[in-house]
């Protein structure tokens, strides 16, 4: 198992990095050895608790500046791997997060080893990944390299491959693992369920590895019906933290009243803290005195990556609701004693619904959606976003994103057809997911769902949560 960097070295670089100080430029890779040696000679010892919590808004203000600054001293633009955030805004270029290229490769190898240690994938497995490639999205190369790091062999299904072509690949290469966003996996699985029995018997799929969005109990059950005895696992990650935890099959079986997912993370690679929800309240004068919660208590997840040093991620409030727990016995018995002593459980309850929501593998930040909906030329008077199961789909396998819009037609507004195009861009709607996107233009407020108390229009409703 690859190990992370020394926390003291990470904090040394963080103390002179624009993300956490008033320094103008981050270091270049050639500057790093000298900076670390200088710190070792210093008597000053930095502590993690001395760093304030890092918020997305402040972090990305610095990233926006550094991304376009072409000064030769700007280490942000040197030898970096660029990934885009999962939060879709659809307005302008996606915000990017840069990490050192070599550090990124080391991290993928380490997470690949975590997959192998937990028995998710390893030598002898052949994986067909359906992760999207296109625009600046990096899930395809990310997951391909992680699987390879576990010892598996990977086939990448291109975005233009039809489902019948995927079936021929699965059969022709005797692929035993399929991977992708939950939506992609469910689409392929539903297609497989319609195939003649003779065709289905030629498939040897034994494992599913999903990413990007939670899998509902109904979706999990459907997979079990299509692939009896299937081993369902998951990987979690982000542009800022990269891939950082996995959920082996022992942890992915959930019930209808269980709205969380358990992930195994390695404390040698990631340091996690959970803080009270009160830290989000800018009027709370005690935020500066907030302390991490004890294991088992639910709050906001704060990440410090031990695998990112040149562009550190220190005490980053990532937006997930989480609690921390010891490694359960079913997992402990399947991993080595050495690894088990470092492994721990991050119980993820999803993104804080006050600030974001997810659909078809993308996270959408509410401030970005609200800003877009206020675009003057769109003429939107009121809107409502609803996540629900598919029309007539009692199994809740597919999640539909329904957008209800009421607009005016004053001079200066774009046409309904133009607005439709803008909304499709805003919510990342393409041919592969347009059947799950339901845009409705209303003629009055009667078409909106309202709160039972103040009868106010609710901007976001999640009907998939029961």
Automatic annotation (TrEMBL):
InterPro entries reported in the protein's UniProt record: ANL_N_sf
Name of the protein in question: AMP-dependent synthetase/ligase domain-containing protein
Tell me the lineage of the source organism.
Answer: Eukaryota, Fungi, Dikarya, Ascomycota, Pezizomycotina
């Amino acid at each position: 198992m690859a190990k992370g960097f020394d926390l003291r070295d990470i904090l040394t670089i963080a103390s002179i990095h624009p993300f956490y100080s008033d320094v103008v430029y981050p270091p270049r890779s050639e500057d790093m050895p000298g900076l670390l040696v200088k710190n070792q000679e210093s008597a000053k010892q930095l502590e993690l608790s001395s760093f304030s919590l890092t918020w997305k808004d402040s972090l990305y203000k610095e990233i926006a500046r550094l991304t376009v600054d072409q000064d030769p001293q700007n280490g942000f633009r040197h030898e970096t791997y660029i990934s885009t955030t999962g939060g879709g805004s659809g307005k302008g270029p996606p915000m990017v997060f840069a990490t050192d290229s070599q550090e990124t490769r080391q991290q993928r190898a380490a997470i690949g080893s975590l997959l192998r240690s937990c028995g998710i994938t390893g030598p002898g497995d052949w994986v067909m990944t359906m992760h999207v490639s296109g625009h600046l999205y990096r899930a395809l190369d990310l997951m391909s390299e992680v699987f390879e790091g576990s010892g598996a062999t990977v086939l990448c299904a291109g975005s233009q491959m039809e489902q019948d072509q995927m079936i021929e690949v699965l059969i022709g290469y005797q692929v035993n693992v399929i991977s992708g966003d939950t939506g992609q996996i469910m689409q392929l699985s539903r297609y497989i369920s319609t195939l003649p029995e003779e065709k289905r018997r030629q498939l040897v799929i034994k494992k599913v590895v999903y990413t990007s969005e939670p899998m509902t109990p109904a979706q999990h059950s459907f997979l079990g019906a299509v692939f009896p005895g299937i081993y369902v696992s998951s990987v979690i990650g982000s542009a800022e933290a990269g891939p950082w935890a996995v959920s082996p099959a022992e942890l992915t079986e959930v019930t209808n009243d269980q709205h969380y997912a358990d992930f195994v993370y390695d404390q040698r690679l990631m340091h996690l803290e959970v803080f009270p929800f009160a830290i989000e309240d800018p009027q709370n004068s005690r935020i500066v005195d907030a302390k991490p919660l004890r294991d088992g208590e639910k709050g906001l997840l704060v990440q410090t990556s031990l695998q990112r040093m040149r562009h550190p991620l220190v005490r980053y409030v990532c937006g997930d609701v989480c609690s921390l727990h010891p490694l359960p016995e079913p997992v402990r018995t399947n991993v080595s004693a050495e690894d088990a002593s470092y492994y721990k459980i991050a119980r993820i309850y999803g993104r804080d619904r006050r600030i974001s929501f997810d659909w078809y593998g993308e996270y959408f930040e509410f401030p970005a959606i609200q800003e877009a909906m206020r675009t003057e030329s769109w003429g939107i008077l009121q809107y409502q976003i609803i996540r629900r199961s598919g029309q007539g789909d009692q199994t809740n396998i597919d999640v539909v994103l329904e957008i209800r819009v009421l607009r005016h037609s004053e001079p200066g507004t774009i046409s309904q057809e133009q607005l439709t195009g803008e909304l499709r861009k805003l919510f990342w709607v393409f041919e592969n997911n347009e059947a799950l996107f339901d845009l409705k233009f209303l003629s009055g407020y009667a078409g909106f769902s309202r709160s039972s108390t103040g009868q106010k229009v609710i901007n976001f409703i999640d009907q998939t949560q029961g």
